[in-house]
Structures are given as C-alpha cells and as structure tokens.
Amino acid sequence: MADQVIVAKEELRQHSEIKTINEILIRPLNDFLIERKDQEELSKSMSLPMLKISISDFNSGLEAALTNKMKIASKRINTGENDYVIYSDQTNTIKWSLSVKNPLPLVNSGVFEQFDQVGVIDLMRVVNQETNFFDKFTHFQSKQQRTQPDLNDILACILGNGTNFGLYKIANISDRSFNDLRTTQANYLRADTLREANDAISNMTASLPIFEYYRINDQGQHGSIDGQKFECRFSSLMARYSPKYFGQDKGVSAMTLVLNHVPVNSKIISADEHESHHIFDLLHNNTSGVKPDILSTDTHGANKYNFAILHFFGYQFAPRYKTFKDYFERMFQVEASDNVEQLITLRIPINWDLISGEWDNICRLMISLGQHKTSQSLLIKKLCRYKSNTASLKALAEYDRAIKAQYILDYIDNETLRRQVNRSLNRGEAFHQLRRVIAETNGNKFRGSHHAELTLWNECARLIANCVIHYNAQILSELKELNEHKGNKENLEALKRISPVAWFHINLSGFYSFTDTENIHDFEALAKEVHLEA
What we know:
two-stranded antiparallel sheet; Tn3_Tnp_DDE_dom; alpha/beta; transposase activity; Transposase; 50% helix; seven-stranded mixed beta sheet; globular
C-alpha cells in the first residue's frame, strides 16, 4: 500500500511540475525573485563574500586583472613564448594548436587483476563495514524510525535497481522474497536516503590516504560535470526522443558531478534538455563533504550566464570548448601594434557602468537562486530564454563576459590549465565507463516509468559505483601506506597513475546470494601481495 501511495503522490507532483515549467516560461522573471523588502535581511544571512563587496572596488579590480591578462597574453604571443598560439603579422591572424595530448584515463589497472574476484554483494558489505551507509536508510514514517530494515533486503533492492533488473527479477535470481523487497523499497529506499548513503561513502573515500594523490590543481579541488544518455524501457514525462543516441526510442540523461574519481552528486534530466541549466543545481545542492572549487564541463555546460553565476557563488568555471577559436574570436580581436602588449583587445568593451548600476538587481537574482525560491535549474532556464533586453540581464551578461574573457586568456596562455581541464573531464568519462558496465548487467535501459523511479534507480547505480570506487581506493590507500613505510618512492609515483575506477576483479552478475556471511577484508594483507610496476 505504501508504494502505491508514493507512486500516486509522484504522479500528482509530475503534473504539478509540468504546470510549474509552463508558468516559468510565460510569467515575468520578477515573479520568481525574492521580494525587494527581504533582500537586505537575506543578504546578511547568506555567507557569500560577493554580497558584501564594494562594487566599485570589484569592477576596478576585475578591469585591471583583465587588462593585465590581455597584455601578458599579447606579449607572450608576440615574442614567441607561447608555442601553441602563433601570430602571423602578414595575414593578421592566429594559428592555433591548443589540443592537449592527454590520453583517456586508464581504467582497470593491471594492479586489480592480481586479486581474486569478489562478488558485488560481498564488496558492498565490506564498504558498509567501513562507511556505515546502511544506517542512512530510515523508515519514511517518523513513528517507525526505530525500525531497522534487513541489510540483505536493502542490498538486494539497491542491486536490483542499479543493475536494471528490477525487484521482481532480482528476487528470481537470488535468495530474496519479492514481497519483502517491495516492502523494503517502499519504506526505506527514497531519493534522500540514497543520497545520504552515497554521501557517507563519498566522504569516507575522501578521507582515505590515497585521495590526496588525485588532486589535479594546487589552488583548489577540480571537478567535472557531464551527462550520460540512457534509453528508457517505458515511456515517461522525463523520457525524450534523441535520434543521435536512441534512434526511434526515448531516453534520459544522467548528469554526474565527479571530483577526484568520486561521483558526489547526480541528477536525471530529459535527453533534450540543455545541460548548462543544471550545472549550478548540481554544484549548489551537493550535500556531501567533497566540494569542488573549480568546475569543468564540455561545451554543453556553458551558457551566457554560467560564468557569472558560478563566480558569484565562489566557483571557478573552466569549460572545454569544442571550437575554442570561435569563442576567442567572438570575445577578442587581433590587431598588429608596435607595442607587443597590445596584440589582443576586446572586440566589444565591457560596460562596467552598467554592471555597477544594476549590481543590486544582480544580487537580488543571485540571492533568489541561493534561497531556492523556485527550482534553480528552471530559473536558470528562464534566464537563458528570457529576452536579454532588460538592464539587469544585460548587466549580468556583461559580468559574465568579464569573467569569461579572463578564462579564455588563461586557457590560451596556460598549458597546465588545459591539461587540468582535460584530466578532470577524463575522470568523468572514466566514471561513465563504470556506470555503463553496471547498467549493462541487465540491458542498459532504465525501467522507471516516472521521475521518482528514474531518480531512485540512478541513485542506486551511483551507490554501487561509489562502493566499487571506495573498495579500490581502500586497497590503493593500503599500498600507499605500505610503500611510504618502505620508503619506495618509485612505487609511490606509480600509485599516482592508478585510477580507482576498475571492475575486472568484481563479479556483477550470476546468482546472487544475500545470506549473511563473514566479510572481514584484510586490506593490508591484500596490499602486501601486490606487485607495482614503477
């Protein structure tokens, strides 16, 4: 009965969502912002440095930094110090060679082939012993909070959903009862409990000794967001046609925030939605303790406001553009000059006065995003679709251009930055490989028929992936400590090149036995048997 109630509530909520989306697309933007009378009080309550700065000081500092970067980039190109950007004074054009030879991440390192295969159920039990993620599954009724679910049933539900078997089929190929699984899922498996369980694993992985080896940038933690397409078995409001990925069928996109190989947040969106509308949502609503400072996406993660929005909230946006030359030429012009520092200039100067004049309205918009007055992704979608003929949105676009211009100059002048962006995105692709393997255990298609089910199944798959990554990271951490004790620097350097994204030593299929067994893993003993190739 409980699961029927949840499904009925979800159907009502979906109809409400459709109404909400339609309202946002036709109602004035002002209807979705905080009241002006509340702005000052909310501004004081939010711990955002940008709400407390002097706009005149901010603009002057930003303008000086941008001018300085243009001078440095111009000089390095003119003097030949930048080997990747060549200026021809005869044609007054730039020849680009910014592609970075950064190979795709090596998954399934040979290190893991040295271990005996471990069943996915045993692996999840071991990870639960390390992280206690099972404790996050509480009953949906407050009066039943003290009731503990059966660990075996919880694991079976997670595995059945995450591998696309579903509860009925996982019951048929295991020693679990379908009725018990259905009751357990209805009572304990919800999006919030699954996210809390995922957070528990992510936080524990981040505390392992090996985690420091995965840091890309010394200035901050560098993460990435990317979407992965999955076909749906059943029609739903979320499923959309995308001939490029699904042919004549429908599907969804699972967007995931990955930091140092760890999938710290995820969200299901329609396959035809623009990924850039959900970037801030994934970042700002990341409830784990693993927080990125720098975020990379591909071209689909960029829009005309994301640089400004992320900068305001303290993030550095670092996308990888597919056609970088086009973005540079829209922002800058190249003109020969006797002064080596004046090769690159803005095609259209930044309107600093407009930013200053509309700063209060920009702050109001940002506070509205931070306060969840409406869905953040829907509000950003509204901003991007709204006609940019109001002074506030023009000012926001100018703010965005000022931040974006600095990033473009950094990108052409800093090979290290380009490599870091690629490495971050490659780690996201490595996670996608693992996520696809988990999905292909039974057909690679989502079975959910509405948004709540799709989200549930996606979070279950993320939890399985999180368990695999934590298990591997635990082994690598023992290897790190063992070689530190021995003083073996060559092996420690080799460890830095080994990704915890590996599954060749993990058995994801077969007949699943959830009978309680002793699952005492001696990671130290496992590490002593490993041979590392330096």
